[in-house]
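name: query_chain
kind: protein
chains: 1
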Amino acid sequence: MPCLVKIASRLYGTPLLLARSKLDVILGALAPRLAGQAISFDSDAVPSAEVAVTPDGIAIVPVIGTLVARSGYLGAASGLTAYSDIAETIEAAATDPGIRAILLDLDSSGGEVGGLFDLVDHIQAIRAQCGKPIWAVADEAALSAAYAIACTADRLYVTQTGEIGSIGVVAVHRDESGADAQAGLAWTFVHAGASKVDGNPHQPLSDSARAALQADVDALYGRFVALVARCRKQPPEAIRATEAAVYRGDQAVAAGLADKVGTLRVALADLGAVLARPTVSRPITARKEVPMSESQGEIPVIAAVPQPPAQANADLEQRLRAEYSEISAIAAQAARLGVTIDPAEAMAKGIRPEALRRTVLDQLAERSDATDVVAAAPAAAAPKTDTESPIVRRAREAAARK
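structure:
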């Protein structure tokens, strides 16, 4: 019974970042037990939380079940995952020299507020320090607190039926005063401090207690909205406008809450392709030591070794810019005809402009008026978009350092 009381204390009268559907299930299971009925947890239904590492060095970190600050009081058999465990797992993967990237595998409807924002800050600090990409996939849910974690990823995938969103905060007050009266029970609280017994289940929620709880919920909601807006590069007003709605698959992508519809397998393939892509880096100045002459007692001199010219990097940057400009132009033309193309994704996958143009033409084969527009090569470079290919950016930065 003490364990059950602890669970109830973490559900009632405290803000939660939990999807409403999951909250209904938990409360529905907990209420009978509080009334004296038996309740059990099906440990066989709890998925494995073990970390897997792919041959190309991608660590798959599971974020599964109800998320809590600490889970020791019930253990993993109850379907709980602790924020502290997630932090330790990600940190271990980030500091492992054999791991090149991290993929968060999410299937969670959210959970407690306590510990969540600390975890988010920790993930962002780890990524800044280790420089390894962190991607995520909602398979099949990344809701509320789970979405707060997922949105910090560099790239977020969602399955066709996967659920994303529920960007909101909820608090529940259990009023047992009516049941107490029927049972012939009367509760008297002797206390010091006007707010000491606010929100207790044996009295209706007072106006002051409701106002205080609402203020707490509103403050946490503002922090949640700011986090998502910053990570997803959207105005806070757009995030608030979702009104904590849940989006599936392509709806989540259209709402700007995810980047692509795809399974865990697709996300792994795309991430592997990014890891395999060559990068442009600044040459490191090599040095050689001139040995000291024993006869003359000269001080060692460090002589710089001449470096190869930077023309190759400049040529590569120019070629990538031209290619990205052409792909952007094709994407703009295709958009006017109802076909969506992500220029950055096309560059990341190494799709040439000619192949991309053929793909668009195939999709518009039945529309003869579109063929002439898309088939024609762009006359001039398209204006630079806000989204720049990582390859182009690195080439530009390398050339700027020369």
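note: The first strand starts at residue 16 and ends at 18.
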